[in-house]
């Protein structure tokens, strides 16, 4: 009973071994992350198209929810840039400019994301995240970072630009209003960016975002920048988020489904990737499905307390871990920092300039444009680079959700195409060894006229069966010297019933031509299917070997005894001595 | 120049080596198939919902077109049952009961099929057919055979039943009219079926369809069965098919696209499957894309001479080959038989009873219900049986085209799912060998505490990278005795950039834990990617081996020298002597 409870509530498990040392570490980490969350949360709320205070609401209840149900001890949950963008992309087209409806839809979306993540976790659907490949994610994140960066242009320039997911629309709108650009605002934002970049380079221990927020707010307060037309955050309601039941219509829920699905998966993907890194570094294991449950509870709980969708963020988790977080208690301490801020410090936010928040966003997302991955793929895998580029371009041109969907679909089609057109090889024996390798790669490998050794590098199934049949049928069976074909089956990881049919056909062709067929290196699951299909029986167990070399030796021995038996000697190509066939079955 | 012409026109190539012997064989085969085509063509036209004479039109020009451009020397082109059904399924819903519009749509469809097949052939899209797996095709054919069989029920019962692709609708309509059933018609049809089945069992040399047609037509003529209410073919226009340009609207073309695509692929699939069998038996090779061109030309030419879509049929090709067809001249001779029939014999068709044509169809398609494949799959591969059953049920319930589409999609999803959840193994050495195998399958395999040997049976790519990482991370790295991990990479047929990232991570984890990582059996294409990704460099070439055994020996040697070097001996598990590491790189 207690074990099951501990299993469901990882925090309980952690608390049973809690020590004063743990508390010291968690306190330090929790305070650091909490302080970092204040400006970041408010800045990310701007990306989501919400009032800044909602970034703080999203930094409170979800942290507590995750602390109780989550299994990562270092993960820092809260608002993150990409999810904020996805929220805006889903909600903005439906809100029709009504700020109250916008907020209501965002809260509904949070509840949906929570329910979806919880359901996926309980149904063990965490594996779905595996279908987001690295190049697709990288192309998507890079494009999203650009969209986010440009979405803040209006705050940096102090002009009114309608929200858009398309960079060219934003730039065009900005260009049309170039004479309205507010110079003091631009200067403030640019100085903010410069300070952030300098602090980032100088020392990672300094919470840059907090520094520029304090400096920027102080400057406006001192010099009355708001009278000069600098846009400020203004009146912020004090106090903790209220309990609200998201009011929704089924039509809204249906329209939000694609967005909720995307956020659930992308948010989970970001979270699990960073959580796994720190789990490994700290020597504990992580269950993807339990993580989904943890994030699902965090979002569901948050939805009832004015939170927009959250997940585990990359940069704050790194800070949390570096600052020594040992258990989920660190997250609770961060939440307490936010709660105290909401209760007592909101009056201080009045003079906070939006341009400074925009500068924080821009510097944060600049690091997400993944040039390094593009360069890496240029060297390593051009096909994957094309996939990254496709996702990048599709995200910028077709739209946020459409872009990632296009990337996923194309990457799956590419997988099928590749497995349908597998690599094949005719093999020879490497000199002074019993190893057989592709003749094209190892031109000095030794071939023989009487035994042909072939290999196909793929699971053998309906879509590539014809390649396999062609591999055998392209062998010149009318060649008088040829007595046997050995197929190296070790790279054949799986066979289906179509493949079993093909092997029956290949055996028939070989027999018609008086050629012996040997299979080497059959693996368990493949052997099972071929055995049930009668292929093993038809072939005879004496034609199965673990190793290619043993099969070649057996083929030679059979052919020699055959030749000596009926007197028609044809041992033309026995240029080298072979050891006797090893016992193998 | 001549070579290129020969390449484009296979018939020319065949004629340059033509002999009197060839002509004798081709004449016999061509006559046999031509005689067989007369009743079959008329019967299949009924399946397509067309007047019987259109079956003969479809047996003329397409045969000539294929004879000139096709590469199979035995393939007998003409109307076939499944394609006829697909024609009815596409055209009937659009014709709105207007017989002239029905014929016009069928001719338009023929032209579209021809253009599609020609285009696919020229663009080398023949590989697309590989995505129709055996179980899907089998399930589809079985269901289609049932639909075809039941579609003839109205002719067998002599009642008027509206065309439907749903068996339950046909049965319901028949049940509602049970008192209208025309007994003489039923008896005629049943006797036809019995004769056909008996002749089929007795001797394959007798053209059963022709026999029942002659007997049935004679009986009606003698006894005046048409006055007794037996439905007959009636007045048939004599003469060769006219040249007509299919008149079409773009709206019709758009509506026919799904049908044209399905017919192009299914027709090609049936044709190439049987053509390949006889190409192999007769020792020549076949190019799938050229076959598409041949069928495409056959259909395009046919479309202008009142032909509905045709393809190479299974049973007539078998007869053609058995009767000795040596070249495409056999097809030309069959066409001549049909031409003579159209010119001189059409008056004989007047008394031909529809019930006899229905009996021919029913016996022909009964053999297409693939019980054997279902039994085979029950033994061999339950997953494929499920796929066959799904396609079968979907074809009967969702519709003809929808059924095959559902089968293809589910089979592709299954492929992705399987490659995303690969088989993995921890391996040991088989006694008295250098072969390493799965411990679960070979419990007597020898393991060692200092070297762990693992394997993953799949191409390593984004969707299964997490399985691969888990495989390594589940190894207890804190085990003091463990010094090295050997990964058998020979079954890893391909890696992508996500996999390269994963290997970097795995190397890092191993190094953190003071464990040596060895890769054995890297194949060329995999080595290339890992080399460009820097994995090979990071690992060091001394950690790469062709064979698992060599890697294990190297690991042991390194560990031994390490132990003797720093004095902390820990050679706990050297229970057996190993030969010195073989030279390999």
Topology:
Two copies of one chain form a homodimer.
Chain A: H1 2-8, H2 10-16, H3 20-47, H4 53-57, H5 61-69, E1 77-78, H6 81-95, H7 99-122, H8 134-151, H9 153-157, H10 167-176, H11 183-202, H12 208-223, H13 250-281, H14 288-303, E2 311-312, H15 314-322, H16 329-345, H17 354-366, H18 371-380, H19 382-397, H20 400-420, E3 423-429, E4 436-438, E5 451-457, H21 465-473, E6 484-488, H22 497-512, E7 516-520, H23 524-532, H24 535-539, E8 544-545, H25 548-566
Parallel strand pairs in A: 5-6, 6-7, 7-8
Antiparallel strand pairs in A: 1-2, 3-4, 3-5
Helix pairs in contact in A: 1-2, 3-6, 3-15, 3-16, 3-17, 5-14, 5-16, 6-7, 6-13, 7-13, 7-14, 8-17, 8-19, 8-20, 11-12, 11-17, 13-15, 18-19, 19-20, 21-22
Short description:
The first copy, chain A, has 585 residues and is mainly alpha-helical. Helices cover 61% and strands 6% of the residues of chain A. Chain A folds into two domains: 23-236 and 248-413, no CATH class; 424-580, Transcription Regulator spoIIAA.
């Amino acid at each position: 009973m207690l074990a099951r409870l501990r299993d469901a509530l990882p925090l309980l498990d952690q608390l049973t071994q809690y020590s004063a040392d743990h508390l010291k570490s968690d306190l330090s980490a929790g305070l650091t992350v909490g302080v970092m969350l204040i400006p970041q949360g408010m800045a990310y709320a701007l990306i989501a198209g919400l009032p800044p205070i909602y970034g703080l609401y999203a930094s409170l209840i979800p942290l507590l929810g995750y602390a109780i149900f989550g299994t990562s001890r270092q993960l820092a949950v809260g608002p993150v840039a990409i999810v904020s963008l996805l929220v805006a992309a889903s909600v903005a087209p439906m809100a029709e400019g009504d700020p109250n409806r916008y907020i209501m839809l965002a809260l509904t979306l949070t509840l949906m994301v929570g329910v979806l993540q919880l359901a996926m976790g309980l149904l063990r659907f965490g594996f779905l995240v595996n279908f987001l490949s690295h190049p697709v994610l990288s192309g998507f994140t890079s494009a999203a970072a650009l969209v986010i960066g440009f979405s803040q242009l209006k705050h940096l320039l102090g002009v009114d630009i309608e929200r858009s997911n398309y960079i060219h629309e934003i730039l065009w709108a900005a260009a049309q209003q170039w004479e309205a650009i507010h110079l003091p605002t631009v200067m403030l934002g640019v100085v903010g960016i410069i300070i952030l970049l300098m602090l980032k380079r100088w020392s990672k221990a300094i919470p840059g975002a907090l520094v520029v927020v304090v400096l920027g707010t102080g400057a406006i307060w001192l010099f009355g920048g708001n009278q000069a037309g600098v846009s400020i955050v203004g009146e912020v309601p004090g106090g903790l988020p209220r309990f609200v039941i998201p009011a929704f219509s089924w039509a809204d829920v249906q329209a939000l489904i694609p967005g909720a699905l995307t956020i659930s998966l992308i948010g989970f993907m970001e979270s699990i990737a960073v959580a796994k890194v720190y789990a490994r570094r700290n020597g504990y294991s992580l269950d993807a499905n339990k993580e989904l449950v943890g994030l699902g509870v965090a979002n569901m709980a948050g939805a009832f307390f004015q939170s927009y969708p959250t997940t585990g963020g990359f940069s704050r988790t790194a800070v949390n871990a570096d600052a020594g977080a040992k258990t989920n208690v660190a997250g609770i301490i961060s939440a307490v920092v936010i709660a105290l801020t909401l209760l007592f410090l909101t009056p201080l936010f009045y003079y906070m300039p939006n341009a400074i928040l925009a500068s924080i966003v821009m510097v944060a997302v600049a690091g997400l444009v993944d040039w390094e991955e593009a360069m890496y793929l240029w060297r390593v895998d051009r096909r994957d680079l094309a996939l990254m580029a496709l996702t990048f371009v599709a995200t910028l041109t077709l739209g946020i959700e459409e872009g990632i969907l296009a990337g996923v679909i194309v990457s799956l089609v590419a997988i099928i195409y590749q497995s349908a057109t597998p690599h094949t090889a005719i093999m020879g024996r490497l000199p002074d060894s019993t190893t057989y390798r592709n003749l094209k790669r190892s031109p000095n490998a030794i071939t023989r006229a009487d035994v042909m050794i072939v290999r196909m590098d793929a699971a053998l199934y309906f879509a590539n069966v014809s390649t396999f049949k062609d591999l055998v049928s392209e062998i010149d069976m009318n060649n008088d010297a040829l007595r046997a074909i050995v197929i190296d089956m070790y790279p054949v990881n799986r066979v289906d019933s179509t493949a079993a049919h093909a092997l029956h056909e290949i055996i028939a062709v070989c027999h018609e031509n008086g050629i012996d067929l040997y299979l080497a290196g059959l693996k368990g699951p493949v052997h099972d299917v071929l055995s049930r299909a009668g292929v093993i029986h038809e072939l005879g167990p004496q034609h199965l070997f673990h190793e290619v070399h043993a099969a070649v030796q057996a083929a030679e021995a059979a052919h020699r005894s055959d030749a000596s038996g009926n007197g028609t000697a044809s041992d033309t190509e026995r240029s080298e001595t072979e050891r006797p066939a090893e016992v193998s079955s």
